[in-house]
Fold this sequence. Notes:
- This protein has two domains: 361 residues, Isopropylmalate Dehydrogenase (3-Layer(aba) Sandwich); 107 residues, 2-Layer Sandwich (Alpha-Beta Plaits).
- The chain is 32% helix and 22% strand.
- It has 13 helices and 20 strands.
Amino acid sequence: xxxxxxxxxxxxxxxxxxxxxxxxxxxxxxxxxxxxxxxxxxxxxxxxxxxxxxxxxxxxxxxxxxxxxxxxxxxxxxxxxxxxxxxxxxxxxxxxxxxxxxxxxxxxxxxxxxxxxxxxxxxxxxxxxxxxxxxxxxxxxxxxxxxxxxxxxxxxxxxxxxxxxxxxxxxxxxxxxxxxxxxxxxxxxxxxxxxxxxxxxxxxxxxxxxxxxxxxxxxxxxxxxxxxxxxxxxxxxxxxxxxxxxxxxxxxxxxxxxxxxxxxxxxxxxxxxxxxxxxxxxxxxxxxxxxxxxxxxxxxxxxxxxxxxxxxxxxxxxxxxxxxxxxxxxxxxxxxxxxxxxxxxxxxxxxxxxxxxxxxxxxxxxxxxxxxxxxxxxxxxxxxxxxxxxxxxxxxxxxxxxxxxxxxxxxxxxxxxxxxxxxxxxxxxxxxxxxxxxxxxxxxxxxxxxxxxxxxxxxxxxxxxxxxxxxxxxxxxxxxxxxxxxxxx
Length: 489
Ligand code: NAD
């Protein structure tokens, strides 16, 4: 008799309790060895005034069991509430979101057949850092952060996942034609780490055409690795075209902790009707069983589930006259899966998991801090809230105000587009101006200035009643500039 593995379970909101009860029923009947600790998260806590949606005792359980099976929760509309999903992923360091997605044609209707892909989404960075500011009357900003260690980790994870799971190809999606530094880094690291995996085919697509190809010919993809926001969007597309968002589960993997869930939300309109499909959460639970080493139980449940789908026993989100045989509720679907435990699908290929697979070595994802590169400050982008409309006027004012032989105003941009010098009158200007002040170039083009010089510039503009709202220092790292040109510069 194997020992029970402690896990933390949250039943969530909306359809959450129904699909979790159905899932736990199947796990129990299949003989999963689990010691379940239930915690309360989500709407009830939000409405009690706990803006994070989770309390300290729940964190205590999660940090102890390190395994979290979570039903979807409802994030109340309106300000002040933090997304619990984002908080959990970031607090527990769950850097990789793994979302397998496949079609089950002809048993589940889909325009595609033969789709069987895994999306590996970076889970902690990108625009999800939640660093947003209102800067002027007209302009709001959200900061996109892509880090080298975060990217190296997720890209390596994607390749390691491909090798461990017998996958042949890894595709990277980014938008590096536009975001040359952030997405450019992601793409570059993909190419570099990819060299260590010669047995895996590699390709990169710009996210827009990549997403279009995914929607049109999903069978051409195998493993996809991408940034947080793109991954969020394309995994819903992939799940939906596979037949239903109700089918796919996901794993959120960190160095020490892991969380397993359905990819869909709490579907509040369906709640309490015994009509939701528990398959997404069940697939999350199957990934959890593999993670904790209960691989035979996982395989047994997965094959029983495939058999249920093949037998045409369907919840109403995937029910189709002619294809399906019987429409069932959430509970009845779970009973149908339990009745098929020990059976395999007869027409679809049964799953077979490697019983001797060793757990992934997570130590390779520990990212030590690298030594700093030589870095030279060469200027500063000063952002102004300026109500005027003519960039020539702003340039003239600033040239007179700054009046310093060591630095010069080299460019003014508005919404990223260069408007001075030689701007185009067609360019629409808002009240948010970026003024690039750089050191007057020395012979090698990298002439340093001091931080004190930046403060001097800021003091001068403030004394002249111009309102700077933020600055970005302009650095060279070795001989490489750490800043992009303005559009049109
Ligand atoms: P949703 O995924 O809840 O629902 C989208 C559509 O899919 C609805 O038509 C719904 O009926 C259907 N659907 C979803 N799951 C289904 C299932 N298991 N069986 C049958 N049909 C299913 O997305 P939404 O409506 O945008 O969001 C509802 C709430 O869920 C929001 O409060 C949102 O913040 C939250 N949410 C939570 C999570 C999470 O906890 N991981 C993820 C996404 C959204």
